[in-house]
Write a structure and sequence with these properties.
mainly alpha; two-stranded antiparallel sheet
Length: 75
């Protein structure tokens, strides 16, 4: 079950479009990316072994620089 959840999260993050802030800024001031998860946890309903269960987590870059996700790891 944990393996399927990890693969689901990994595939979600892989297809998640991330874009940089295209606003004007001075070259001496660098922005900082900041990841925000409005709902960071989710409890699945009971399921029969072998069933595929999914949930989409929304990740938001609330900073003012490009957010790069380099590694995903389950807890």
């Amino acid at each position: 079950m944990k393996k399927r959840f990890f693969l689901l999260m990994l595939s979600f993050l892989w297809i998640l479009p991330l874009s940089a802030d295209t606003g004007t800024s001075s070259s001496s001031t660098q922005g900082t990316p900041r990841i925000t998860l409005p709902d960071p946890s989710y409890e699945f309903d009971p399921a029969i072994e072998g069933d595929v269960v999914t949930h989409e987590f929304t990740l938001v870059n609330s900073g003012n620089a490009l957010l790069e996700i380099l590694k995903v790891q389950t807890g």
